[in-house]
From TrEMBL:
The lineage of its organism: Eukaryota, Fungi, Dikarya, Basidiomycota, Agaricomycotina. CDD domains: G-alpha (cd00066). Pfam families: G-alpha (PF00503). Residues 128-139 have a biased composition (Acidic residues). One of its GO terms (biological process) is adenylate cyclase-modulating G protein-coupled receptor signaling pathway. GO terms for cellular component: cytoplasm; heterotrimeric G-protein complex. The keyword Plastid does not apply. This is G-alpha-domain-containing protein.
Length: 491
């Protein structure tokens, strides 16, 4: 069949078949042209596949969001522990100083409580290294901002033995100071801010009060740590490497145990409803193991170690196992305090998934940065802001109702949900009913705030339990990956 030729178009004329083409020549020419088209289509298809593969190779980007102490960093550590063992192993030794610091802080908190009870409350300047004053110590230790220390009616029967313990454990003040200097500002917990701030990341001050951190800065700082402001003569190699900390802890081991196990002090804690076991970075039951000269942190220690996150920290690792083996993941762990939330916003572009942590045991607690705000209420407000956020409209959001273990303990100890959440009413005060109730509330908020319909994914988690968390992460990993690949194909 002949082809029509546009005689005014030079290209058309150039590729036009010769006017005197024979039948055989035409068949041969058409064969050549068909082959050329096949090769060209094949190249196009290869390019398309390569482009799709390139998009699929884009790292899976996940944001961990939630208020301070909700368990974001702990969840990130679970991801590393489960899927990126190499990076985990490389980091392990850096955590030694954090665990030591947590233990020393626990002991200094006990010493503060004992001093106060002895009626010899040291002025604040005497204990610059203890980052909590007594009321704050109570709050942090009890996990409840409403708990004030009872001015005990009868003074606790402390003896000379307690005064001696206090003196012998005195060097731990300096050790806490040294570790704080090594670990940077993340080592100090939040204190109430004077300016009032709101829950959402958009209505916070434009300039976040905390700076951006694009890598694990404290680990680098720890490696390069050089103390300053000290007379050269006092500096030793041991001080620089942290060996003096290990040495002092090993020397104080028996005294630390004696303090923690002391029945008089235990009684004071009980009477004042101070639950040290529920506080962040609790290591008092591990003194025997940690306060030794050859201590190396276990996986469990690293997961439980507490260091506040400043700004936004970026973690890039290649998953070694699982369905995404070989795939690169980019995870952002953020500081959760109200004053840090404005720093999250620049990271909302191109996110595959948000894991939102809400510490469900905190229904009776107040925010450290604003003692007027109930922590559950803050989580609801923040959840609403994140669900309603337009740049995240098409992003998968996964809710972790975390600290289920603490919720169990709290309810078992007799704390009533309805005393803090009146709308809970006369429902049964058990974990199943409470979690179902809270979950429903989060679901409703999401439904009302999502800019467009979005599935509601929720998991009940105890992030410090690495085994159960690994099972949750496997489900989460699959869901995130499926979404990631679907997006890559669509783009
Ligand atoms: N008992 C218990 N403790 C938990 C759980 N999840 C986290 N923690 C502890 O709670 C503390 C705070 O956890 P982090 O992961 O540091 O909290 P975060 O959300 O990263 O907090 P910021 O960095 O301040 O925003 C740590 O001491 C954790 O060990 C949990 O499910 N149960
Ligand atoms: Mg953190």
């Amino acid at each position: 069949m002949g082809r029509s030729i546009d005689v005014d178009d030079p290209l058309s004329l150039a590729i036009a078949p010769p006017a005197n083409e024979t039948h055989e020549e035409r068949i041969a020419r058409e064969k050549r042209e068909a082959e050329a088209r096949r090769v060209s289509d094949e190249i196009d298809e290869m390019l398309r596949q390569e482009r799709a593969a390139m998009k699929k190779r884009r790292p899976v980007k996940v944001l961990l969001l939630g208020q301070s102490e909700s368990g974001k960093s702990t969840t990130l550590k679970n991801f590393q522990l489960t899927y990126a063992r190499k990076a985990w192993a490389e980091d392990r030794s850096s955590w030694k100083a954090v665990v030591q610091f947590n233990l020393v802080r626990n002991i200094n908190t006990l010493l503060d409580i004992m001093s106060r009870e002895m009626g010899t409350r040291a002025p604040r300047s005497d204990s610059p290294d203890s980052d909590l004053d007594y009321d704050e110590a109570d709050d942090a230790a009890a996990g409840s901002a409403d708990t004030d220390m009872n001015p005990s009616t009868a003074p606790a029967p402390f003896t000379e033995h307690h005064h001696v313990l206090k003196l012998r454990l005195g060097p731990l003040r300096r050790i806490q100071e040294e570790l704080e200097a090594r670990l940077g500002s993340g080592a100090s917990e939040l204190v109430q801010t004077s300016s009032s701030t709101s829950a959402g990341p958009f209505d916070s001050p434009r300039r976040p009060q905390e700076f951006y951190v694009r890598s694990n800065n404290w680990k680098t700082a720890l490696k390069n740590f050089r103390p300053f402001g000290r007379a050269e003569g006092r500096r030793s190699k041991d001080f620089d490497t942290g060996e003096d900390v290990t040495e002092v802890l090993a020397t104080c081991r028996e005294d630390m145990k004696a303090l923690w196990e002391d029945p008089v002090l235990q009684d004071v804690l009980r009477k004042n409803k101070i639950r040290m076991e529920e506080s962040s970075g609790f290591f008092l039951n591990d003194i025997d193991r940690i306060a030794t000269r050859d201590y190396e942190p276990s996986d469990d220690d690293v997961v439980r170690a507490r260091l506040r996150t400043l700004g936004v920290q970026e973690y890039r690792f290649v998953f070694e196992i699982g369905r995404t083996a070989g795939h690169e993941w980019l995870m952002y762990d953020v500081g959760g305090a109200r004053t840090s939330r404005a720093a999250w916003v620049p990271y909302f572009d191109d996110v595959d998934a948000v894991i939102f942590l809400a510490p469900i045991s905190a229904f009776d607690e107040k925010l450290a940065e604003d003692k007027r705000v109930n922590r559950l209420e803050d989580s609801y407000l923040l959840w609403k802001a994140i669900c309603g956020c337009k740049p995240l409209a098409k992003t998968q959001i996964i809710l972790f109702l975390n600290k289920i273990d603490l919720l169990e303990k709290k309810l078992a100890s007799g704390v009533k949900v309805k005393d803090y959440v009146p709308s809970f009413g006369d429902r049964s005060n058990d974990v199943a009913t409470a979690t179902k109730y809270f979950q429903q509330h989060f679901r409703e908020i999401a439904k009302q705030s999502n800019p467009e319909p979005r599935p509601f994914f929720v998991h009940l988690t105890t992030a410090t339990d690495t085994k159960s968390t690994a099972a949750t992460l496997s489900v989460v990993e699959e869901g995130i990956l499926r979404d990631h690949l679907r997006r890559a194909d669509l783009l």
